[in-house]
Write a structure and sequence with these properties.
The protein has nine helices and 13 strands. By secondary structure, the protein is α/β, with parallel strands linked by helices. Helix 7 runs antiparallel to helix 8 (277-308). It is 39% helix and 18% strand. The strands form four sheets. The chain has a five-stranded parallel sheet.
Length: 349
């Protein structure tokens, strides 16, 4: 998997940095995606780490289309901010591959457009139509990729609020909020206690395995209501079919109402009790549910046991966090976005 950091505005690459001869691209663009694909022709899976204020609507829609038509697998995670047009990039990944860190934030708002030039009324109407068209395109993506009501999503855009990771989850923009995992396996647990837990897990898993698939049972005893053995079959469970090897010969009535006839060591006839059919079916369904639940429990406990038994130790951090800079307010983010929009002609989000 190739990881890509989306830390720059969404825009055309040649807007500023090529004009001034900068080596480092000014923006994150569809050309950036093509270059990454060209450098990694055999890679099928990519992860985008998003911390972006948004940018040009037309370029964001182009990026979305490039990703959706590439035939590749994408994961998107919001590291910090996923504002404005960056949300469309987030939605390029399938819902199950979209996540956010616990303190992630996202500003959802309507599309705005502007121009450096003085416009006629007809030109203003044309610009308004373009803004409406871009907003509808974004709403189409929101609706398809979140599964939420279009009107509800349109109201979100009009409210222009910074949303939390939990709100992104509630509205279907992501499917998962990441959990903290720093030094996950490092603690004060003694070796004796840790080994005792591992031994208990191994014992439980062994017993569970035998319960789900017994290995030592070679026959099954059918009993009456008092626990007396009526007959036995050469099978590991209580399933009963005509043709099963069984003994002794005779005709027997089971507590569930079935009548079983055995002749020459073989089950020759099974007569069901009509009034018990529904109960038997319910019991069989319940057994199936319990077996599935036990199998799931076995998987979970096996994963926990393997994780607890891991020898991995997280490396200590080398860098100290930098402080002293106050996080921007919602209004600061909006003003910053508006200032960037006004620097260019065309719809920006």
């Amino acid at each position: 998997m190739i990881e890509i950091n989306v830390y720059k505005p969404i825009d055309k690459e040649d807007v500023f940095f090529k004009y001034f001869g900068e080596e480092d691209p000014f923006a994150f663009s569809a050309d950036t995606i093509h270059e990454i694909f060209d450098r990694n022709p055999n890679e099928k899976e990519f992860k985008f780490n998003i911390n972006c204020d948004g940018g040009l609507v037309s370029e964001g829609l182009r990026i979305y289309d490039v990703l959706r038509t590439s035939g590749k697998t994408f994961h998107c995670n919001v590291e910090g901010g996923c504002h404005s047009m960056a949300i469309v990039l987030l939605l390029a990944a399938p819902k199950e591959n979209r996540s956010a860190n616990p303190n992630a934030r996202a500003l959802i708002h309507e599309v705005r457009g502007g121009s450096w030039e003085s416009l006629t009324s007809e030109e203003l109407r044309t610009l308004a139509d373009e803004v409406d068209s871009e907003q509808n395109a974004i709403l189409d993506i929101y609706t398809e990729r979140t599964g939420k009501d279009r009107t509800e999503l349109e109201n979100l855009m009009k409210e222009e609020k910074v949303r939390t990771a939990q709100e992104l989850l509630n509205y279907g923009f992501i499917s998962k909020i990441n959990t903290y995992s720093t030094n996950k396996n490092k603690g004060t647990m003694s070796k004796q206690k840790k080994q005792a837990i591992l031994n208990a897990a191994d014992k439980f898993l062994k017993g569970l395995k035998n319960l789900l698939k017994p290995e030592d049972v070679v026959n099954y005893d059918f009993t009456d209501e008092d626990g007396n053995i009526l007959f036995s079959t050469e099978k590991e469970d209580d399933s009963l079919e005509v043709g099963d090897a069984a003994s002794p010969d005779g005709t027997f009535t089971l507590p569930d109402g079935r009548t079983v006839t055995i002749a020459d060591g073989v089950v020759t006839e099974i007569t069901e009790s009509p009034e018990e059919d529904e109960e038997v079916e319910n019991l069989q369904n319940r057994i199936s549910e319990l077996e599935n639940a036990l199998t799931e429990a076995q998987t979970i406990i096996t994963n926990l046991r393997n994780e607890l038994g891991s020898s991995y130790q997280a490396k200590p951090r080398n860098n100290q966090p930098k402080g002293g800079k106050q996080a921007p307010s919602v209004e600061d983010i909006k003003n910053d976005l508006r200032e960037k929009r006004n620097q260019m002609k065309g719809g920006k989000k």
